[in-house]
Amino acid sequence: MIGCRVKWSAVIMLFAFGSAKAQQIVTDRPDQTESAAIVPLGLVQWEGGMLVEWEDADAETRWMTPTSLVRLPIHEKLELRWVYNQNRVRSEQSTLGASSTTDMELGVKWNVLDGTTNGHMLAVLSHWALPTGGESGVPSSHKLCLSHDVGEAWALGYNVGCLWDNGMDGWAYALAVGRAIGGGWSIYAEPYGTWTNEAGHRAAMDAGFTWLQNDRIQWDWSMAIGLNHDFGYQSIGLSLLLGD
Predict the structure, then answer these.
(1) Topology (CATH) of 44-242
(2) Contact status, residue 183 vs residue 189, Cβ threshold 8 Å
(3) What are the tens digits of pLDDT across the range 173-222?
C-alpha cells in the first residue's frame, strides 16, 4: 500500500503463522502487515475480496470490489506482484458513483530469511503505483517485512518502511499479533499507520480472522477504526493458491 495515494489495495495482508510450508497458502491479506513469505516456485497466488471504507470528515464511503493481488514467483526467494482494484465512491452529495480503477501497482518481494533455521523471517518489499487511474507521477513504497514464531500457536509480524513521491513523502508501520485457534481458524489484532508530509500521523487499529479451508484456499474477514482520525473499513476476502 502506497501511503494515502493508493489506499486499501489488495496488499492488505496476513503474516505467516510459523515457517512457510511448500505448496500451502500463506497470504498478505487481510491485515496491513505484509508477510515475509514467498509463493512457492511454480505456483501462482490470487488474493482478492471486497472492501468498504469510510471517512466521516469527507462524508464519503468508498467501495472497492473487486480488490485483486496476483503473486508470481520467479525464483525461490523472489516474487513479482500485480495489484488491481475497482473503485466506487458515495458521498452526501451523490449516490454510488460510476466504477473507476485505482492506480495499478507493480511490486517485487525478496525473501532474505525463510525462517527454516530459527523461525525468523525477513523480506524486502517494494511497490510502484502506475498512473493508470488518473493520478500523476509514480509513487512507491519500500518496506522491511519481518515475522517470528513466539510460541506453538502465536506469531508476531511487523513492517516498517518509507513512502516515496517525487522525494521522501513519509513513513509507514504495522505490528500484527496473531493466534491459531484450531480447525484452520486464526485471529489477529494490529496497530498500524502512516506519517506523511501532507496528512501528518494517521494511526489506526484493525482486527480480523482467517479460515484455512484447505492448503490452497483461505477465507478472511477484517475491520478497522481510526485512532486519531474519522476512519473505518470492513472487508471480506478469498485467496487461492493455483498450480500443480
Answers:
(1) Porin (2.40.160)
(2) no
(3) 999 999 999 999 999 999 999 999 999 999 999 999 999 999 999 999 99
Q: If we measure between CA atoms, which residue out of 49, 204, 38, 197 comes closest to residue 107?
A: 38
pTM, rounded to two decimals:
0.85
In this structure, are residues 30 and 48 in contact, taking their beta carbons and an 8 Å threshold? Answer: no
> For residues 74-104, b (16+ Cβ closer than 10 Å) or e, as one string?
eeeeebebebbbebbbbeeeeeeeeeeebbb
Percent of the chain, pLDDT > 90? 64
pLDDT digits (tens, 9 = 90+) for 99-146: 667 779 999 999 999 888 788 999 999 999 988 766 667 899 999 999
Rounded to whole angstroms, the Cα distance separating 177 from 98 reads 38
Give the start-end residues of each E strand in 78-199: 78-91, 100-101, 105-114, 120-129, 140-149, 154-164, 168-182, 185-196
Least Cα distance to 38 among 136, 108, 97, 100 occurs for 108
What letter would DSSP give residue 40? P
Instruction: Name the residue ranges covered by the structural domains of the chain.
Output: 44-242
Three-state secondary-structure class, residue 157: strand
**How does residue 150 score in pLDDT terms, banded at 50, 70 and 90?**
confident
CB atoms within 10 A of CB 40: 20
Exposure of 204 by Cβ count < 10 A (0-12 exposed, 13-18 middle, 19+ buried)? buried
